[in-house]
Design a protein that fits this description.
Elements lengths: L2 E4 L4 E5 L3 E7 L5 E8 L51 E5 L9 E9 L17 E10 L4 E10 L4 E10 L5 E13 L4 E9 L2 E9 L3 E7 L8 E9 L9 E6 L5 E7 L5 E7 L6 E3 L4 E12 L2 H17 L12 E3 L1 H4 L5 H14 L3 E4 L28 H10 L3 E6 L3 E2 L4 H5 L19 E2 L5 H17 L4 E4 L21 H19 L4 E4 L9 H4 L4 E3 L6 H11 L8 E2 L2 E2 L12 H9 L4 E3 L7 H23 L1 E7 L3 E7 L5 E8 L9 E3 L9 E10 L18 E3 H7 L1 E3 L8 E8 L1
Parallel strand pairs: 20-21, 20-30, 21-22, 22-25, 25-26, 26-27, 27-28, 29-30
Antiparallel strand pairs: 1-2, 2-3, 3-4, 5-10, 6-7, 7-8, 8-9, 9-19, 10-17, 10-18, 11-12, 11-14, 13-16, 14-15, 15-19, 16-17, 23-24, 31-32, 32-33, 33-38, 34-37, 35-36, 35-38
Helix pairs in contact: 6-7, 9-10, 10-11
The protein binds (2R,3S,4R,5S)-2-(hydroxymethyl)piperidine-3,4,5-triol.
(2R,3S,4R,5S)-2-(hydroxymethyl)piperidine-3,4,5-triol binds next to loops.
């Protein structure tokens, strides 16, 4: 049993293999949060020493006990307007105008298995590996029932949380805030690590000490966004990659989100995370229910690296439902950076022939194959093939590509519509626009109202026919603008605050139906690169295009930042042409492959422009990728270094049998200082050989035949390598790199 109720101490304790989470029913019925940390037994209420702090009020029945205040005690899920002045988790407003929530325990139950959610993505259990706790709280004044859901994955050390709200009253009720998680940490000195960025530079880690007051990380864009990823980490000031306490909060939500962290008057921290409050409200008619998105909690004492690896494993084992997880991955060539909109059947087939000769498995036809799509100003919504570019439709191209022995994939952007499209002319009200206001345009396109069932139904009809009628084995699902003008012609005035949330639900519905009905099609998520790289999407798709910045040097930091929460094998990454189209930088071809191999691996260039030597190199890269694919997907990811001179990471088999260490020199020095790195992921009790030491893009000093380096024939102890690290030979040139493949003997 991983969930225990102790009637004496009135505690509910959630145990995972290495962590313990505890809450307590107070005599008032309020639910206090007692502990979340390393696994241990016992009741943690001794840590709370209530005292009158002044101006912190008391529940009515404890009015003679001024020490007991919701304002100073840690709450499991904070109410509103009832004497706790810190962050609110839920904000209901009743029909009579009464607002706030005084949440009191009504019941709780413990059940085998993992709870499910109605229309939202949720983690799933295999073979009885999870238990569910449901704690029901009620607010008498508004009639709101709040069910706190906890799915405890003991082996994985993950706790999934979600919240279900039901109106038990006899009049409508409005939720103005409905968070997924409240996490009170009464003691500690915390830092917030979050992942910010912009288009072409997503998920840059930023770690800042918490200040007294409130810090907020949020997106109001209707998508999880390039700017602020919903995943955050709270860590102790001393926490490093390998040591120290940290908590991860990973929402399974792809829309506007917010995570707030407050440090209160007593130095206690409260984190509240969920759907973004701005623009959100939800009306619950009597008997109706609203579910807030799930979030995955991980806590570890073993540093940020351990936290990341727990998420990586969990996402592929317990979240993503795609049957492609762990399967050998096709090497693809995407025509976007090769041709942009300027292609026709002949060009595509020329690309396909070249791709085949390189050893590629799959040709992906990107944007521009439909309607009058000659540029990015038009035709979204007109999902019929552009016969001027592809005479006779898709089939002749697909057949020819298949005849070469390649699979065929296609790009779609279902959620959008161009003003200049037949779809918009037929259904102008299907676009999100505010009456009497010219809509804000993004990439000169509008956003479909995915909250409308008929829109989703229409899109399902279009795209299921596309996949049914053609031999398409891969779909890149793109989304190229932030939402604005979020007003739904289908909702009454009092429900307009639901439109953005309903948009995401509708998008999930379509994605779920298409991925379930076409399980043999590999789907890739995308939103102008990595604008919707989140765990909500990863519940459906095994991979997401990580960034529109395909420069390998920049990808090092983008992919490293992404790795804090998300698995390397989920990051769409391609080798592209140089000078790079986004930065103008030239990075050696080999180093470009080293970066792309830490993601899904593929190509995004015109092979006809390659020299014969480059083509040979690419053939070798593809052979190498195939040989390493199982390790790259199944291995544990270790961030080894990221400094002003080099970036290094390792992907190590969980059983310690092998590890691939990749190092890219980002700043080459004259008379260089030694390049020394620590190693991780090896078995200290085993012996290893350096089975391969592959250098890429290294300029050799005059007269030298190779950069040199360690003796491959020598045996090294695992402990020796872990403690002593590894010294690389001097690597010269721009962005040289090396991959070291250690194998157990
Ligand atoms: C944005 C994507 O991230 C690109 O890879 C490409 O598919 C374009 N959209 C096409 O419009």
């Amino acid at each position: 049993m991983s969930i225990l109720f102790d009637d004496t101490s009135k505690t509910i304790t959630l145990h995972t293999r290495r962590t313990t989470y505890q809450m307590q029913l107070a005599p008032t019925g309020h639910l206090l949060h007692l502990y979340y940390g390393a696994r241990s037994e016992g009741c943690f209420d001794y840590r709370l020493l209530p005292r009158d702090c002044g101006f912190s009020p008391n529940p009515y029945e404890l009015r003679n006990d001024r020490a007991w205040s919701l304002d100073t005690l840690p709450q499991e899920y904070s109410g509103a307007l009832c004497g706790d002045y810190r962050l609110v988790s839920v904000y209901p407003v009743a029909a009579n105008g009464a607002s706030g929530a005084d949440l009191r325990h009504a019941s709780h139950r413990i059940e085998p298995g993992k709870y499910t959610l109605d229309r939202l993505p949720a983690a799933f259990a295999r073979d009885g590996e999870a238990e569910t706790l449901t704690v029901t709280l009620r607010d008498a004044a508004t009639g709101l029932r709040v069910e706190l859901l906890y799915g405890v994955f003991a082996e994985a050390d993950v706790i999934a949380r979600a919240v279900r709200f039901t109106n038990d009253g006899d009049a409508p009720l409005r939720l103005e805030k409905a968070a997924s998680v409240c996490l009170d940490l009464p003691f500690g000195d915390w830092e917030l690590l979050h992942f910010h960025g912009r288009h072409c530079m997503e998920r840059q880690p930023q770690r800042t000490p918490l200040m007294t007051g409130i810090q907020t990380v949020r997106s109001t864009r209707g998508m999880s966004s390039h700017q602020h990823n919903p995943f955050v980490i709270l860590c102790d000031r001393e926490t490093t990659e390998e040591h120290g306490l940290c908590y991860g909060v990973m929402p399974l939500w792809s829309g506007s989100h917010q995570t707030e962290v407050e440090v209160d008057q007593m130095g206690a921290a409260r984190l509240v995370s969920g759907v973004c409050e701005e623009g959100f409200s939800w009306t619950l008619a009597p008997g109706e229910t609203f579910e807030a998105p799930e979030a995955l909690l991980v806590c570890t004492e073993d540093g940020l690296g351990d936290l990341s690896r727990r998420y990586h494993r969990f996402i592929f084992r317990n979240l993503c439902r795609s049957r492609f997880v762990g399967k050998p991955r096709p090497v693809l060539l995407n025509n976007w950076e090769a041709t942009y909109f300027d292609f026709d059947a002949d060009k595509l087939l020329a690309l396909a022939r070249e791709a085949k000769a390189l050893g590629v498995d799959l040709l992906v036809l990107d944007d521009g194959w439909f309607g009058n799509r000659c540029d990015d100003n038009r035709a979204l919504g007109d999902w019929f093939v552009n016969e001027a570019k592809l005479p006779g439709g898709l089939d002749p191209v697909i057949d020819a590509v298949n005849a070469l022995g390649l699979k065929f994939g296609i790009w779609i952007e279902p959620e959008m519509v161009s003003e200049d499209s037949d779809l918009f002319r037929a259904h102008p009200d299907w676009a999100l626009t505010v009456p009497n206001r010219a809509p804000t345009m993004g990439r000169n396109q509008l956003v479909l109202d995915m909250g409308r069932a008929e829109v989703v139904e229409y899109l399902y009809g279009v795209f299921s026919a596309l996949l049914r009628e053609h031999r398409i084995e891969y779909v890149k699902w793109d989304m190229n603008r932030s939402l604005s003008d979020v007003y739904s012609a289908a909702l009454p005035p009092e429900r307009q605050g639901e439109a953005a949330f309903r948009y995401v639900l509708g998008m999930y519905d379509l994605l779920r139906r298409l991925t379930e009905d076409f399980p043999d099609v590999r789907f890739e998520g995308c939103a102008g690169g990595g604008g919707r790289f989140d765990a909500g999407m990863l519940a459906f798709v095994p991979q997401i295009w990580c960034s529109d910045d395909s420069d390998a040097a920049e990808r090092l930091t983008i992919q490293r930042g992404t790795s804090y929460g998300y698995p390397a094998a989920s990051m769409g990454a391609h080798v592209s042409a140089c000078p790079n189209h986004q930065t103008g930088r030239t990075v050696p071809l080999g180093t470009r492959a080293v970066a792309a191999m830490s993601g899904t691996f593929g190509y995004e260039l015109d092979p006809a422009r390659l020299t014969d030597a480059e083509k040979d190199e690419i053939r070798a890269q593809i052979r190498r990728f195939r040989a390493l694919d199982a390790l790259l997907q199944g291995g544990d990811y270790h961030r080894l270094a990221a400094n002003e001179r080099f970036t290094a990471w390792a992907i190590a088999a969980p059983d310690g049998s092998e590890a691939l260490v990749s190092v890219v020199v980002t700043h080459t020095e004259a008379n260089p200082r030694p390049l020394h790195l620590r190693l991780r992921g090896l078995d200290p009790d085993a012996d290893y050989v350096l089975a391969e030491q592959a250098f890429f893009g290294c300029a050799l000093p005059p007269g030298a035949e190779s950069p040199g380096g360690a003796d491959p024939a020598r045996r090294y102890g695992g402990a020796q390598l872990l403690c002593g690290g590894w010294t690389l030979p001097a690597l010269y040139g721009d962005y040289p790199s090396v991959q070291l493949h250690f194998k157990r003997v």
